[in-house]
């Protein structure tokens, strides 16, 4: 098992995978790691749907791509041909798709709308922690993964296709498999660019 700081520094967003199946035990390990993330009120407001068969993956990819094209058409942009196909293949060809969903079940029912919105914010933050655990666990297990936000732009399309109940909200999609690429190290801000010492603007 990789040391945590090595895993954090060396994990990359992987978009190309080998045509090799991922053992179920590894998928379970990754999902268990997600489930150990901290969450507000210990509500654990995450739900995950795993897609591994080719038909389900391609169907979801095709429906999301069509929704993307329709959304862009509203702004006068035309998405078709190779560009549309590339969006489909990105998800359809990944060995594993993990749909991350959000639920406010278990969150505190606040007496006013403003504080209730904050509860949803807390649920979103909690899901983010689970997603990071998932990505780091995949890397530690020798797998590549990439976090995509595509379902957030076509929630009802995804909900209808996968028969997701109304109280559960599609949020993100993770592709996962054995790596077929080694991306370069991306640029990172220096500590003083994002951490401040006591007062905003005073570099840490």
Main CATH class: Alpha Beta
> How does the helix and strand content classify structurally?
alpha+beta
- The CATH architecture would be 3-Layer(aba) Sandwich
Average predicted confidence as pLDDT? 94
Radius of gyration, whole Å: 19 Å
CATH superfamily: NADH Oxidase
How many domains would you count in the coordinates? Answer: 1
Query: Which strand order does the major sheet show?
Result: 1-2-4-3
Explain what you see:
This protein is α+β, with helices and mostly antiparallel strands and 204 residues long. It has a single domain, classed as NADH Oxidase (3-Layer(aba) Sandwich). It has 7 helices and 4 strands. A 4-stranded antiparallel beta sheet has the order 1-2-4-3, with helices on both faces. Helix 1 (4-10) packs across helix 5 (113-140) and helix 3 (54-74) runs antiparallel to helix 6. The protein is globular, with a radius of gyration of 19 Å. The two termini are 32 Å apart. The mean pLDDT is 94.
């Amino acid at each position: 098992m990789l040391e945590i700081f090595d895993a954090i520094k060396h994990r990359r967003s992987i978009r190309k995978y080998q045509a090799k199946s991922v053992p179920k035990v590894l998928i379970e390990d990754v999902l268990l790691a997600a489930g150990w993330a901290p969450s507000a009120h210990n509500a654990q407001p995450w739900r995950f749907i795993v897609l591994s068969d080719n038909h389900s993956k391609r169907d979801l990819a095709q429906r999301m791509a069509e929704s993307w094209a329709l959304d862009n058409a509203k702004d006068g942009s035309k998405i078709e041909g190779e560009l549309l196909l590339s969006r489909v293949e990105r998800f359809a060809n990944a060995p594993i798709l993990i749909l991350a969903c959000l639920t406010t079940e278990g969150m505190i029912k606040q007496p006013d709308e403003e504080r209730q919105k904050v509860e949803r914010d807390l649920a979103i933050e909690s899901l983010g922690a689970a997603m990071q655990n998932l990505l780091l666990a995949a890397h530690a297990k020798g797998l590549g993964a990439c976090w995509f936000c595509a379902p957030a732009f076509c929630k009802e399309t995804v909900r209808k296709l996968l028969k997701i109940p109304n109280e559960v909200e599609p949020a993100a999609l993770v592709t996962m498999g054995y790596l077929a690429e080694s991306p370069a190290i991306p640029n990172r801000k220096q500590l003083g660019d994002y951490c401040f010492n006591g007062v905003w603007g005073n570099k840490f």
